[in-house]
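for the writeup, i need someone to sanity check this before i put it in the appendix. the sequnce is what the collaborator sent (i think, or maybe the updated version? ugh). structure was predicted straight from it, no edits. if anything looks off just tell me and ill rerun, i have time this weekend
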Amino acid sequence: MSDAMKSVLELAAQLSADERGELAARLLEELDHADADAASAWSDEIRRRIDDLRSGRETPIPWAEARRQILEDGDDAG
């Protein structure tokens, strides 16, 4: 843990429960903003993949085949 993090935790421990709650909420809001960008990118990717399937550019495979491929790839990784 960095010195800055230790200092922040020491200071946060001195806050009231309400203040710690407010601090936590504000920190989470900042994380949510970053997540919103990721969510937007994933939304675009999902739409692209659906379009690829509907247009025939991609051909779906049955779950059993996908699972087999995933398990084979996992065997190669380790």
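The chain has one domain: 3-77. The mean pLDDT is 90.
thx in advance!!
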